[in-house]
Specification:
It is globular, with a radius of gyration of 25 Å. The protein has a 6-stranded mixed beta sheet with strand order 5-4-16-15-14-6. Strands 20-24-21-23-22-25 form a 6-stranded mixed β-barrel. The protein has a 5-stranded parallel beta sheet with strand order 10-9-8-11-12, sandwiched between helices. The longest helix is centred in the N-terminal third of the chain and has 19 residues. 32% of the residues lie in helices and 17% in strands. It is an alpha/beta fold. The C terminus is likely disordered. It has 28 helices and 25 strands. A hairpin with a 2-residue loop joins β22 and β23.
Amino acid sequence: MTLTIRSSVCPHDCPSTCALEVEVLDGGRIGRVRGAGANSYTAGMICAKVGRYAERVHHPDRLTRPLLRTGPKGSGQFRPIGWDEALDRIADRFLELARQHGPEAIWPYYYAGTMGLVMRDGINRLRHVLRYSRQKKTICTASAEAGWIAGTGRFVGPDSREMAQADLIVVWGGNPVATQVNVMTHIARARAERGARLVVVDPYRSGTAAAADVHLCLRPGTDGALACAVMHCAFRDGHADRDYLQRYTDFPADLESHLEARGPAWASAITGLSVQEIETFARLYNTTKRAYIRLGYGFTRSRNGSAAMHAVTCLPAVTGAWAHEGGGALWSNRALYHWDKTMIEGLDALDRSTREIDMCRIGAALLGDAEALRGGPPVMAMLVQNTNPAVVAPDSNRVRQGLSREDLFFVVHEQFPTETARYADVLLPATMFLEHDDLYQAGGHTHIQIGPKLIEPPGECRSNHEVLQGLARRLSAAHPGFEMTAMELIDWTLRASGWPDAKTVMEQRWVDAALPFREAHFLDGFGTPDKRFHFAPDWSKVGADWRRMPRLPDHLDSIEAASPEKPFRLMTSPARQFLNTSFTETPGSRAREGRPTVLVHPQDADRLGLADGDRVVLGNERGTVLVHARRFDGLQPGVLVVEGIWPNDAFKGGIGINALVGDDPIPPFGGGAFHDTAVWIRTADASHAREAV
C-alpha cells in the first residue's frame, strides 16, 4: 500500500479554517488527517473530530444515489432514480411553481455545512439569476456582527497570533477548547513564555473555563452589565486612557456620567457575580495594556447579543488597549479578503427588490406567517444545501410541521440521511471537501487557502456546483459562472479580488492576508465614516430594529427572562465532538459525547430530587424535550445547559433541543437566540414522559 501526504483545508463552520495534511491511500481512501505544522496559525494542531475524518468520508451510511420519495414526508422512504430524472423533476416543478405563484415562491436555503466559497455560496447565483426569494442570513453570526460593526465599523482586528504576545487573554463568549482549538495553542504560548493570565467569561464551566486562571461564571445574557462595570472602574480608578479616547473615539460627553450608575454592585445584581469578582477582574483588565479579548459566538445567541458585543468592544477603547501589540479585541477578520464574488454568487444579477426571508424564521415562513413571508407568495419549493434546518433552526417543531406540507416541493442535497433529508421529495447525494475543489478564507486568522480534490467521491455523489450547473441548464439560468469549473471560479475570484492566481496559491499552500499592525489595530482610524470608535453608534445604519438599542453601552434587558412558570434559563452550547449536526453520525464522536444530557446545578437538583442519570422533561410553550440529567456545579443556580445539537432521534422522546428555542429576531438586525430560552424542568414520571413523547 502506498501513502502520500496531500495538502487540504478544513471546510467546517469554525473560524480556524485549519491547514491540513491528509494521508491519501491506495484505492481512493484517506487515513489520518493532521494539522499543517508549517502554517503559523494552525501550527500542527487540529481538533480530534477532524483528525478522525476517515470515519466520515468512508461512512457506510453516506448517500450515494439520487432518491425519490415514496412514503409520507418525514418517513425516509425513497427509491433510487438517475441523475437526469432527478434534475428534470426538480426543474419541471420549479418552472411550474414559478409560473403559478411567481419566482419568489421558490426559496433556496443554505448555510455553512461547508465554508468553501464556491460550494457554500454558489446557490446564490441560481437565486439571483432566476429572481428566487433571497435569504437573510441570521442563524449564526448576525447579532455579533451588528454589535461589532456598530463600534469599530470594520470586520478586522489584531492578528490572532498576537495572543502569544499578550499579558492577559480574555476569552469572552467562546469555548475554543471545543470550537476553535488553535486559539488555545497561542494562549498556551503566552502563558508559558510571558506568564500571561487567561480569563474566561462564560455562563458555565466549559472546557476552556476549566483551563482558565479565572472563570467569571455570570448569568446568561448579562455580559453587557459586566462590561459596563469594568468601564466604570476604569474611569473611577484613573485607568481610562483619556488621550486615546480623545484621539480615536467619539467619547460622548455623557459617557462617564452614564457609567457612574453602572458599577460593580449594579452589575453584581444582574450578573450574579460577586462585587469582589468584578472588582478583581476590572483591576486586572484595566491595568494591563497587552490585554487581548477573543470574542466568541456566544454573543450571537442572546436577544441582547448585539448590545452586549458592542459594550465589550468598548473596553479596549476606554483603556487604549487597541494601540498595543497583544492588545485590543478580535471577533472576525472577514473583511481582509475583499472578495469579488460576482461569478460565484451572480452578484451582477442581484435584484434587491426581490423579497428576503429570515432563515431563522423558516418555520413561520413555511406555515404562512404573513410577516415572515414579507408580503410575498407562500413558499412552495425549496432547495437546501449545507444545512439541516429540521434540527438546527429555532422553534424546530414548527419547522418540521412546515416541512411536512404536502404542497411544498422540497429538494435536499446532502451527504447523510439527516432529519431534513427525510422530508425531501428529491434527495441528492453530495460530495465532501476532499472530493471537490474549493476556496477558503478564515475568520479567526488571516490565510487564504485552496482545498483541491484529492479523492473520487463514492457512488454518484456530485458537488454543489455540479448540481447547480445541471439545474441552471434545465431552468435556462444563464450566467458565466455556470459555465466554469469549480477551479476556474476559484481562479477568477482570486484574480478579480487582487490575489495571486489559483496555481500560485496552491504552490505556496496559502497566502497570508494579514494587515499591517497599524491598520489591524485601527491606529490609522476605525472603519466608521469619521474614523473613530463609536460609544454612541448610529444603530439605524446597522439594522431596521434599531429603536430598541441603547444609545450608549449598556445591559439591554431584552432576554427571555425566567418566570414562576418557567424558572430556568437554558443554553444549548456546542459539544466538543460535534460541529452543529456534523459529526453526529460518526461513531468516534458519538461514543465520546455519550447521550444528550442537561447540566443542572446541585442546589436545583436537590430541590427537584434529581440524581445523575435521572430522566427529566424540559419544556415551555413551544414544546417539551426528554433528556437525562447530570449534577454540575459549574454554573449558577437556575441555569441549565444542554451541549450539542444532537439528532432528534438521540432524544428519548424523538424531539431535539431546538424545539424549545424561539425564532423572534434579535435587535437590530436579527439572529437566533439559542442560548436565551426560559424553560421549566420536571422529573420524567409516567405522565410527564407521555407528555414529552
